[in-house]
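Comment thread on ticket #2218

A.B. wrote:
> Attaching the input chain for the structure job we discussed in standup.
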Amino acid sequence: MTLVSTEWLNDNLSKVKILDASWHLSTDRNGFKEYQKQHIENAIFFDLDKYSNQRKDLPHNHFLPEKKEWEATLSKSGISNNDRVIIYDNSDLISSCRCWFQFIYFGHPLNLISILNGGFKKWKLENRKVTNRETKAIPTKYLAKENIHLVKNKFKIDENIKKKEFALIDARSKSRFLGLVPEPRPNVRSGSIENSKCLPFSECINPKDNTFLNKKNLEEKFKSLGIVNNKVVFTCGSSVTASVLGVAYSLINNTYMPTIYVGSWSEYGKK
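C.D. wrote:
> Ran it. Output below, let me know if you need it in another format.
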């Protein structure tokens, strides 16, 4: 199951490995400092910036790490290939969804990787137990297997403009998608990729408790864009919020494997 409830996690804290993947678009907040103050018991911090491949020419993007780097990261974090892993964040689900995608890309079994629906926000709203005690990981030997078909590069995106083999859905706000406001990253022009459509990731999440919309409402969102099959790729600014749409679509289509343009607009729109 892609999502687990706060009730389920509360009842299974000792049976799973928990990752706090909190990361914020705003530099005013720091996920690790928030983790140090309070987190779910037994959680280990997952640093999205550190565990992504940030190219020198695109320092604000989050490309996937190299296979050996991912294996080292999970081994150091005490994660084994057969572990049941639950990911949460304090970041409107965006970084837990991206972390989930990285696990899927590197071959962790689908039935062993889930996102806490509602994240830390819902956990705290329900007054569930938190701690500031850091969890000590016992190193393992994690082995990854890349699913390279789950990512698209710029060449494939350009090729698709003519061939139209898949729909491309942008998770950014409509104002950014339409080029009505400046991009938050330097040296990136405003606008969007030709023939792409926009579904802001925030429209798939309940703002009250950070849970995903129910299946019926999610289906309506995607059907309004003409998305009814598996031929869909998601993009955004730096391939983080695109993962939210990847999760959302997998909730209504259990045969869909999330596919992301990892370069996203920070690569495609580079000046």
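A.B. wrote:
> Thanks. Noting for the ticket: The chain has two domains: 3-131, 148-268.
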